Amino acid sequence: MRSFFVPTILVSGALAARPFLNEPDTGLEQVLGNTAEGSLPDLTDMVGLPDFDWAARNYLPLQNYTYYRNGAAGEWSYRNNMEVFNRYNFIPSVMNDVTEIEDSLSTTILGHNFTAPFYISPCGSGIYGHPNAELNFVKGAAAGGILYIVGNYPSLLSYRANIPRPSGYASLSIEEIHAAKAQGQVVFQQLYLTKNDTETQDLFDRSKEAGADALVFTVDAPIFGTRQRAARLDVSLASSSYRYITWDYYKKLQSMTDLPIIVKGIMSVKDAKLAVKHKVPAIVLSNHGGRQLDGAPSALEVALEIYKKAPEVFEETEVYADGGVRYGTDALKLLALGVKAIGLGRPFMYSNVFGQEGVERAIALMKKELAVDAANLGLSDLKEIDASYVQWTHNDWSG
């Protein structure tokens, strides 16, 4: 008995201590490993979203890549965001007609129609990846028919002078970004807000005048997190002031605009229920990409807790989620719990090194992967997915 039990403990410990793989070994290095540093492979060589991470790291100056890649403290939340999906197995169903699955990807977000249930999450400083910066996201999202949430308003953040930018790089204003929209394109605007009512009202008014269809209020960053990787290269965000974020403040914000205000950064059942109580039209389950509080739960873990303890939340408000999604299978597990749309941040920031074409390819790859994975799961229609398609028992051997 003892000879069996002790090795089991040793094996378990070894697996738990295994090194983290930022990108899995899918043969990329064998095929593209000779790509010269500072150059890009052919866009057609990108066959999955993790490939764009590799390409950006190989191409960008270290400071630029680190600005996108860094996480909080020891980056355990960043790691967990990606690994958590593999702790739960699917329960596939066979002998189903899946031939029309690609036609079922369309969805609505706050009443607006889109071609797929995923969107480009709000991320700042697209300029560090490509001279056209956020213009590539606007145009790429339009071409792919998905939602783009415009990231941090540039004037509220201090851009680090030491981060290399090719000649001609300049940050874009709310007006410049929205002016690039296609006719009829729906775009949301994320804002970091201060307690200065005059500044907040100005941002609300400018966002509406520019054509934003909704506002996204990020609440999980009362102060920028401890980001050691970024600090080593001096690419941390300059602001270190504490922001005033309360439900009373949110109520006041609601009186300052007639645009819907989405709350981004919900990390508990308690706060999800409070959002419903305060009539929030939509919430985003997010730990800020693992960049704020190391040890904060992943969106999947929060979605699972809501499903178990307060499933009515998914009916009482629209629930979106972001963080660590790299595969169609990741998105399926969130959708299975009741999440309506999934945000992807870093993969699109990395794809931006290829310009608008890179953003469009990332969208196309995710759409195809989502459809293929849904078909192999046995879904005839993506909207039929529910929690019964996943075994929600934790796998100790993975993640």
UniProtKB/TrEMBL annotation:
Superkingdom of source: Eukaryota
Keyword list, A-Z: Flavoprotein, FMN, Oxidoreductase, Signal
Naturally occurring in which organism (per UniProt): Cylindrodendrum hubeiense
Residues noted as binding FMN in the record, renumbered to the chain: 122-124, 190, 218, 264, 286, 322-326, 345-346
Catalytic machinery residues: 288 (proton acceptor)
Signal sequence annotation: 1-16
Binding-site list for glyoxylate: 67, 167, 192, 227, 288, 291
UniProt cofactor(s): FMN
GO MF terms held by the record: FMN binding; oxidoreductase activity
Keyword flag tRNA-binding: no
Alphabetized Pfam families for the sequence: FMN_dh (PF01070)
Name of the protein in its database record: FMN hydroxy acid dehydrogenase domain-containing protein
PROSITE patterns per the UniProt record, alphabetical: FMN_HYDROXY_ACID_DH_1 (PS00557), FMN_HYDROXY_ACID_DH_2 (PS51349)
Family membership noted in the UniProt record: Belongs to the FMN-dependent alpha-hydroxy acid dehydrogenase family.
Annotated ranges, domain FMN hydroxy acid dehydrogenase: 41-395
